[in-house]
Design the sequence.
């Protein structure tokens, strides 16, 4: 596929072979593999928030140092990334290297196997970022390619790919969405002032990033307390080509007003089994009855929601944290001192030895604010050994 009338070319020039990767089952790693895989990951990102229950996947075809095809999976039921890339490349795919962010599928689902499509096109080498945890694939795609004589390298930018696919990996292995807890606080740990005088905690660049997250994740969750206090729309604003996540309101007693701006066809209301929620169902909302948060998350998984952005207040956030259901934290810290106010969590006090520690930390400056993100739960993965 062409960009601006010219092929994209890797700046590194000619390829030089390196020693094999440390991951079991991997083949040869070339110096340019990581750069081309980064391009494939950028392609995959174009499908974020739109592919559930399928994963976001990107594919780039490279021949003699030039991109000859690229593609991403736009939504479930449509062709996979490899197919779009092969269509763009045509005959130029023969002898090319395919960079794919997720192991090519080897089974018939809504679409034919991508491994077979790569073989039919004459692809000479396949570089895979991460293996597919789906039991229907789980290394079979890699084996199919290798048995046909195609050189396959596994594990290039694997951690980045797994994080990009966290929702899919959670849904296919745990049956529930990947939960991202997002909050904004002042430097002294306050998410809101008490009483009057509330306003945005963070700057415009930080708020713009939150809108991007809403666009990239399947669902957006708040508690009924937030609905009653703020009446949020739970939509995406200011993102070109953006789409709204599915609103989810945790409301055990079905107190959501019929006038709530977040209440519309497609909104999910999670109530207790004994709540009288008939009036809410009459609006076109989906009412899920669950006796516990784990049960509620599995019910959301049954709706093919693979990722959930948790923006609720301290009460709902604490319930998720105490239940061990927050997988990832994204905290936006503003350089402000508020004094009295609400804290992000309101659970029982912990000793420092019992504090929950984030792993795989990332930090970023957004205008005057600081973004700190990390994991509380591991991303479900299938190691490269599964390709043996």
Sequence:
């Amino acid at each position: 596929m062409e960009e601006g009338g010219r092929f994209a070319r890797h700046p590194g020039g000619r390829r030089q072979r390196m020693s094999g990767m440390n991951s079991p089952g991997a083949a040869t790693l070339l110096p340019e593999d990581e750069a081309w895989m980064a391009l494939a990951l950028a392609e995959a990102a174009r499908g974020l928030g739109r592919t559930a229950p399928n994963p976001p996947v990107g594919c780039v075809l490279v021949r003699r140092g030039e991109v000859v095809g690229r593609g991403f999976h736009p939504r479930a039921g449509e062709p996979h990334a490899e197919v779009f890339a092969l269509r763009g490349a045509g005959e130029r795919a023969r002898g090319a290297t395919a960079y794919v962010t997720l192991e090519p599928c080897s089974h018939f689902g809504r679409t034919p196997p991508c491994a077979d499509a790569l073989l039919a096109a004459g692809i000479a080498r396949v570089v895979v970022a991460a293996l597919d945890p789906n039991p229907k694939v789980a290394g079979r795609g890699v084996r199919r390619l290798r048995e046909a004589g195609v050189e396959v390298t596994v594990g290039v930018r694997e951690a980045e790919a797994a994080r990009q696919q966290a929702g899919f990996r959670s849904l296919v292995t745990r049956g529930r969405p990947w939960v991202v807890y997002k909050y904004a606080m002042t430097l002294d740990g306050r998410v809101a002032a008490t009483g009057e005088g509330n306003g945005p905690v963070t700057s415009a660049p930080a708020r713009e990033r939150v809108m991007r997250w809403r666009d990239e994740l399947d669902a957006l969750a708040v508690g009924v307390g937030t609905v009653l206090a703020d009446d949020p729309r739970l939509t995406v604003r200011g993102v070109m080509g953006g789409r709204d996540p599915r609103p989810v309101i945790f409301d055990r007693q079905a107190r959501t007003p019929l006038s709530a701006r977040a209440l519309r066809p497609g909104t999910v209301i999670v109530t207790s089994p004994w709540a009288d929620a008939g009036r809410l169902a009459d609006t076109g909302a989906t009412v899920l009855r669950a006796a516990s948060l784990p049960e509620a998350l599995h019910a959301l998984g049954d709706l093919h929601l693979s990722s959930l952005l948790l923006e609720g207040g301290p009460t709902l956030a604490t319930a998720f944290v105490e239940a061990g259901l927050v997988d990832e934290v994204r905290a936006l810290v503003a350089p402000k001192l508020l004094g009295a106010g609400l804290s992000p969590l309101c659970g029982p006090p912990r000793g420092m030895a019992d504090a929950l520690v984030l792993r795989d930390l990332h930090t970023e400056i957004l205008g005057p604010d600081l973004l700190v993100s990390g994991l509380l739960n591991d991303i479900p993965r299938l190691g490269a050994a599964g390709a043996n």
